[in-house]
Amino acid sequence: MPRWSPLDPEIDRRFVQDLNEGGEEALAALYDRYAERLYDYCLTLTWESKAAADLVHDTFIDAYRRAPRMRDRTQLRAWLYGAARRRCLQRGRARGLYWDWMDQPGVVIDSETGLTVPGLSELFESALSRLDFADQEVLLLALRHGLSGLGLAAVLGVPARRAATRLAQARARGEAVVAEEAQALSRQCADRAIVRAREPAEAGAEMDAFEADEHGENCLDCRRRARVAIGPLYALAPAPVLPVALRHRVLHTATDPELAGHRADIAARGGGLTPDGMPHQPDVPSHTARRWLFAGGGAAGALVTALVAVLVMGPGITVAPNLEWPFQPQPRPTASPAAPDTEEPVALPPGGAPPAGGRPGDAGPPGPRNEEPTPAPGRGPQTPVPPRPGQLVVGPDVLTLRPGQSVGHLTLTAVQGPVLWNATSSSVLVSLSESTGTVPLGSEVKVDVKLARGLLRLPGEATVTFAAETGAEQQIKVTWGLSLL
């Protein structure tokens, strides 16, 4: 059972001030006050006495160089435990807690319950085996080493509220498993008693509930185990013996001028410090890493949500107009020009002569008609014959826009004569640089096909219809894939 001196924050403040002045006496006094505690903590985590001694040595050398950097100088104890914890975790994955119970066999170490070392160790080890390492460690720091509040939070590298929550939950789970293990050990004790009391032929028979209750009331060891809680188990565990040569080794390494490089290497292996000057724990992400983690998680979540939406809605879905950016309607192409009015045929009366006054329904008296004689071929001026309309050819038949591409090109060509054309789109997402025009014979016209930009552009397709003045139409298919802005 450890017999450590009580802690005082004001003494820690004076220690830090003396360390800042670089005195060897300050390091010696600091070692005398905390060496046994730190050695007990490191040996409990590492299970090896030599490794624990090396870790305690490096912790004091690191504290001699960097402990005065802490902002709150009353947290020197938390600084030392935090530095030792980081070095223990850097050695590898912890297997649990360890104590050497063989130093005091058969000795009563709990005056209230009267449990001896074998009974206490059996109950403690069986209870710890059912707790994970996080619960074991937080109970070790709080119940055995007296760390709580801001000190416990600084050692674990978490906020004070989270540290208090972890401690409360670990203590509740620890009390529950100790009570269950005490009951299990009482049943085993009762089984052994029943076996000894019965005949050899009935040795394999199980006892009933009445016999178990009666044994639990009469057995002194079972009554003692029922009164044990998780706190005394941690406090009553045996304290290891500190190596005698460790103090001289620490003071020699800290003061020998030839070991300056070795001291710098020890401090470098201690890792970085938090903004408050406390050792940064390897199992706690830094503030910068936490911000990047949140930002990357948000971006990844948005991307996954978009991909899930695309898979659910299907590849043929089109984007609603309210998802477009910059949230304004796209201009539609103008309608095709109206064809010129044609004159209706005039019905001739019997005899073949047209009615007086021209068209039917015209008012006015009949008058002489002024008709120009048709000139004979080769004589006088002739009316020019308009060119015959040509055929419109548009290519390619399918225009595919790659991810990130918002503009494509179509080529219009006139065959056998000039062409007057117009075009319309089946989707508001697709617009043309020109919706009408003329293609001279033997020339080509480039028309840009523009796809509306948006925050999220889902896969889709549209049809652009080109119509010539002859009435012939040609449809061009425009397709595009998934794209993010």
UniProtKB/TrEMBL annotation:
The protein's name: RNA polymerase sigma factor
A biological process from GO: DNA-templated transcription initiation
InterPro entries, alphabetized: RNA_pol_sigma-70-like (IPR039425), RNA_pol_sigma70_r2 (IPR007627), RNA_pol_sigma_r2 (IPR013325)
Transcription regulation keyword on record: yes
Region Disordered: start-end pairs: 328-391
UniProt-recorded Gene Ontology molecular function terms: DNA binding; sigma factor activity
Taxonomy of the source species: Bacteria, Bacillati, Actinomycetota, Actinomycetes, Streptosporangiales
Keywords noted in UniProt: DNA-binding, Sigma factor, Transcription, Transcription regulation
All residue ranges annotated as the RNA polymerase sigma-70 region domain in the record: 30-95
Family matches, as SUPFAM superfamilies: Sigma2 domain of RNA polymerase sigma factors
Biased composition (Pro residues): 363-389
